[in-house]
């Protein structure tokens, strides 16, 4: 590939890109519809001109046909009068007008066919323009909706990166953190309360056991177990350390 071909291709590509970016769908729709309407006006003018030409040709055909008929009658009249030479001249005139009439009739038929084609094209173009107008309104509505959607998406995208949105998210995180702290404190308070009740229940068990022990030992007041001991053991010097230990145990139990 030559250098000039490459340069030409690059220039064309850049120009096409510039044109594509510069195209506004709404404006292009309006321009396209305007061009179609201009074509419709030109086609109507062409149909009108063709009809006018057809009418002129039809008039010329009728005149030539009338002249041919007139010279036909003149030839008959000359023969009736016995003037054969004049009749021959009349027939020559008739022949000329008849040939002209035949030529005009062929041209008239062609014009009629062309006019029929132009009329069909005119009707088709009018239908296309009517359809294009309807589509234009629909496309403009779709373009408006697409622009609104694009603007909305852009706003949402900007919200994701804006400082206001970031601050809002930080405040939301702080609220969630504070809620978590409050919930943790409530759970700790509940656990503490439950532990206190558990301690009370444990203390109650100890008190019950202590009361049972006191009942077994008949403490305080009276000592049936001591009374049941042999006299020798009550007064024995060996029982003094035991008694002292027993008194110490009593004091400890009383302090509980």
UniProtKB/TrEMBL annotation:
It comes from the Bacteria. Residues 228-239 have a biased composition (Low complexity). Residues 211-256 are annotated as: Disordered. Keywords: Coiled coil. Residues 247-256 have a biased composition (Basic and acidic residues). Transmembrane segments: none annotated. The keyword Calcium does not apply. This is Phage shock protein A.
